[in-house]
Design goal:
Layout (H helix, E strand, L loop, with lengths): L1 H5 L17 H19 L1 H19 L15 E2 L4 E7 L4 H9 L2 H6 L3 E4 L2 E2 L5 H10 L19 H7 L3 E5 L11 E3 L9 H14 L5 H15 L3 H8 L10 H11 L2 E2 L4 E7 L19 H28 L6 E6 L17 E2 L13 E4 L8 E3 L3 E2 L2 H10 L25 E6 L11 E6 L5 H4 L3 E2 L1
Parallel strand pairs: 1-7, 2-8, 2-9, 3-12, 4-13, 5-6, 5-8
Antiparallel strand pairs: 3-11, 9-11, 10-16, 14-15
Length: 461
């Protein structure tokens, strides 16, 4: 047909009147439309996305300033004359890195006056929720019921202090299971508002849920973050490929907590805070400046990010000294577990497998404690400690012994020769799955004189 229409000679049509004439411009336009139709047919999801994203952007652009759904956290004042107890936990920090940073710098040691640093300490569980709940419980419940441990909140150390007329405050994952008489500050709610979160929720409701264009939407989110946030860290997090890079923003909430501390004539206070800005990915240098790093660079930068966290701890301790409440404060600085397997070097013991899913490093947090009026120089303790010891230590130092009967472990402030050398518990996964439930782990009790390296038949990662 094409030959008959455009090449008339073969059919004897010499009269131009009988020949169908075609405009060159129209021909090119028809070809272009045809190619576009083929492209759109092949990429039909893209056109649906483009049709949808336009109205969505217009709708978001026409919205007034989105007001945060929560008010600024009401942070408890520090008691000027009564006891103040601080348990500050920093996610995934390991004892070997903390000890190395502080012990290699005599100037840093001076800031940790009165502290005992336990160079050998175990986590009971290898992940955050379970580790923190067991830290508050101070024992391992014998229960066959499925579910989380929050239902045992009547045995939380926070509950005991609340019953003894302490003002109790929790932040982050330590809020799980807490009763209404606790000042609970959810994760990332220390600051008055979080605009990036609101816009991100708007996008999540609309496009993330429907269309397979995660990367395109992520680029859109970057633009919204840059328009709606004054924080360089917000924009940095939006560009970071790690799925939970937003955890790094918790450093701003910790800084806000320090700045917000004020003294009053309030009654005794008890705080348990858990901050996640120390969780991987590793992005901070020693001055807490941030940069996207590959995995090899992250391994090399762990010591730098640890120093950043130590400097933030020093800011907190300095603030207590400025408020003249350092001496009437008992302080526990700790973490929930150590880093993941991928951040361990093959030559380190942390790279060895405790179970198919978890490496030894996940059972290696850090732990430092300071008692009331403690003034001795920074001290390293090689005696084997456990996070299970925190609850009984706080209880025995402050409450009637009747409240301490349910807790197990050793008092971290007692002379090593005087403590009851109780074995410490470890939870070992029953299988290779990443099942995060108390009932998926077997209880094992290890003698204090036996290290984890000695106890397990370890195999390399």
């Amino acid at each position: 047909m094409v030959i008959n229409l455009y090449l008339p000679l073969p059919v004897g049509k010499l009269d131009g009147v009988d020949i169908l004439s075609v405009s060159a411009l129209n021909l090119l336009l028809a070809v272009a439309i045809g190619l576009l139709a083929c492209f759109l047919h092949k990429h039909k999801h893209l056109i649906l996305f483009l049709i949808t994203i336009g109205p969505l952007l217009m709708a978001l652009g026409s919205l007034p300033k989105i007001v945060s759904t929560y008010e600024a956290a009401k942070i408890l004042a520090v008691s000027q004359s009564e006891k103040n107890i601080f348990v500050l936990s920093f996610d995934a920090m390991q004892a070997n890195f903390i000890s190395s940073v502080i012990n290699n710098n005599d100037e840093l040691k001076k800031y940790f006056q009165g502290f005992r640093n336990f160079t050998n300490v175990d986590a009971v569980a290898p992940y955050t929720h379970l580790s923190l709940n067991l830290t508050k419980l101070g024992y391992l419940p014998d229960t066959h019921e499925k579910g989380q441990l929050e239902k045992h909140n009547q045995d939380f150390i926070t509950t005991s202090f609340s019953k003894n007329n302490f003002e109790v405050e929790t932040y982050g994952y330590f809020t799980l299971g807490e009763k209404n008489n606790t000042n609970r500050i959810p994760r990332f709610n220390m600051l008055p508002e979080d605009k990036e979160s609101n816009y991100y929720k708007a996008l999540s409701i609309s496009i993330f849920r429907i269309y397979p264009f995660v990367q395109q939407v992520k680029k859109l989110r970057v633009l919204l973050d840059l328009n709606q946030s004054n924080s360089p860290l917000d924009a940095f997090i939006s560009r970071h490929p790690h799925p939970i890079a937003r955890n790094k923003k918790d450093i701003l909430h910790f800084e806000h907590f320090i700045k917000s501390l004020k003294v009053s004539d309030t009654k005794a206070t008890f705080r348990m805070h858990h901050y996640v800005f120390t969780h991987d990915p590793i992005v901070f240098d020693e001055n807490c400046h941030f940069k996207i790093l590959n995995l090899r660079e992250q391994k090399a930068a762990i010591a730098k990010e640890t120093e950043c966290a130590v400097n933030k701890m020093i800011e907190f301790l300095t603030k207590l000294k400025q408020l003249a409440v350092y001496d009437n404060s008992l302080i526990v600085l700790t973490s929930d577990h150590g880093y993941e397997c991928m951040l361990q070097n093959a030559s380190q013991s942390g790279s060895y497998k405790v179970s198919p899913r978890w490496c030894l490093s996940r059972y290696k947090p850090f732990l430092m404690v300071k008692d009331f009026n403690a003034s001795k120089p920074f001290q390293n303790i090689s005696w084997q400690a456990s996070l299970i010891d925190i609850a009984i230590t706080l209880c025995q130092q402050n409450l009637n012994p009747t409240y301490c009967k349910k807790h197990i472990g050793n008092n971290l402030f007692k002379n090593i020769r005087q403590v009851n050398n109780n074995p410490r518990p470890i939870l070992i996964a029953k299988g290779a799955k990443d099942t995060r439930s108390y009932h998926f782990f077997n209880k094992t009790y290890i003698a204090r004189e036996t290290s984890l390296e000695q106890f397990f038949e370890l195999r390399k990662n």
